[in-house]
Design a protein that fits this description.
two-stranded parallel sheet; elongated; 25% helix; 364 residues; 9 strands; 8 helices
Length: 364
Amino acid sequence: MSEEEWERFLRESVAGVPGAPVEPSARAREAEQRLRESSGQPEGWRTYAPARPRRRTGRYVMTGLVVVAALLVMTFFPQQVAGWFGGDDGGQDGAPQAAESERPKEAPGAERDLRPTLAEPFRGSPAARWADGAAGITVPPAEATGWMDTARVERALRRSRDFLVAAGLDPQVLRGERPTKAIAMLNPHQEDVQKYLRTALSSKAPSGRTDPLLLFSRFRPEQSRLVGDVVRTRGRLTYREGRKGAVEVTGDVTFVYPVTTAGDGGRDAEVVRTIVRRQVVMSWDDPAEVITEPGTMSLVSYTLDMTNGGCSAPTGYFVPPFGTDDEQATDKTRLVDPYDRSRLIDTSNGTTATGGNCATATRS
């Protein structure tokens, strides 16, 4: 071996021959063994492989169909849905009923037969979803009519509703006091009405045609009292041109008065609903044609239809039938639904007597 070959042999012995096989270490041999035994590629310690999305199209379609079906049921059967989730309140916490804009075509649907209580005096009746007080009286948009321009018609409509509120909702009047606010809105020159007022509010034994209940809602405070301070109402105003260019406003409103005995009957005291429907026709006359005073109107007619207000001779006050105190002489052959506002009140006589033969109410 020459000296050059000997030196090359020594260098390769120290540095190794490029490409020559290298004996793997024990750690490398162990890692290689685990790799052969496992399936798939090992995951690095800083890598992230997101999960593959699963196909859920069928589940989404089914959920959408269920939601659509639920919306349809709530749209077409709202009262039934309210009954499923409303507990025993008979609609007390149900959604308020939309305002009445025209005469209904049928009576309200049947409610669950639940007894009214001091805490829930309207439960078990359609009034559970009616508005409180003046809010239940719908006032239509005003348009120029007869001798009045639009602004005057709007004022006449507002004053007409004020009269109904003063006559049927004023707390003092409900306690039997004189209806001063309502009387102040009546034309003092209308002699027949003024005569009726003098007789009705002074007589201790009014007749059917002089009964103050024809215009005003009154209870004897020593006999009965309102439950709470809420009276439920439902109705509307309409108007047209009347005689001599007058603006004739008709108020058709049902009032529901929950009452109990005057004494303290405790938490289980009996609650009776006196239901009163009034139809009052008011004429806002042209002062150039009719003698009148500013801000007052004449009465064309006033009628009354009531339930649980007394069927004996008129007393000038509603007489709710608590227990057996008032044996109602009702006509069992004539049935009336006091909540049915689709029927008409007989206005042929201009007034309606409160005494005499009463119909039998189908519900209260």
